[in-house]
């Protein structure tokens, strides 16, 4: 049989593994670049019952950046809630904690030329006791998955480390399988030549 019409070139050892690794590295570089520009959506796991029945603990929401002028009453938004410690005289202390809150917009208000959002959890009896500034809005939130208890595992550092270790182990196993499979194909091709 002539090889004039069919090129059965045997790939170099490890070329498929190298190509997959290069593709993975390129993907990470692109993702980091887009993330730094703010064009990649963020994800958050719902941890409380404040948005039941719309969102339940363990649900994953995708947070996409939006112009504050495009936020309407009824939209679900994610925003930073900054909490300050209070000293004995009732003054805020420099130590602060930022919490991401996912609630529905129930009102918009302009005060002294500044836009503010009024929010409320669907399951809460009253509106939130604060107004949200546009600068604190991370974006609109949309449910993308229901992971249940597994989603809640992702909310603590030990759970995240466990998931990362499992993903890396799976990647190593996948690359090993691909390499073994490509070696078998290479041997089959060589036997036909």
UniProtKB/TrEMBL annotation:
<dbReference type="InterPro" id="IPR001733">
    <property type="entry name" value="Peptidase_S26B"/>
</dbReference>
<dbReference type="GO" id="GO:0006465">
    <property type="term" value="P:signal peptide processing"/>
</dbReference>
<dbReference type="InterPro" id="IPR019533">
    <property type="entry name" value="Peptidase_S26"/>
</dbReference>
<dbReference type="GO" id="GO:0004252">
    <property type="term" value="F:serine-type endopeptidase activity"/>
</dbReference>
<feature type="transmembrane region" description="Helical">
    <location>
        <begin position="161"/>
        <end position="181"/>
    </location>
</feature>
<feature type="domain" description="Peptidase S26">
    <location>
        <begin position="25"/>
        <end position="107"/>
    </location>
</feature>
<protein>
    <recommendedName>
        <fullName>Peptidase S26 domain-containing protein</fullName>
    </recommendedName>
</protein>
<keyword id="KW-1133">Transmembrane helix</keyword>
<keyword id="KW-0472">Membrane</keyword>
<dbReference type="InterPro" id="IPR036286">
    <property type="entry name" value="LexA/Signal_pep-like_sf"/>
</dbReference>
<feature type="transmembrane region" description="Helical">
    <location>
        <begin position="16"/>
        <end position="36"/>
    </location>
</feature>
<keyword id="KW-0812">Transmembrane</keyword>
<dbReference type="Pfam" id="PF10502">
    <property type="entry name" value="Peptidase_S26"/>
</dbReference>
<dbReference type="GO" id="GO:0016020">
    <property type="term" value="C:membrane"/>
</dbReference>
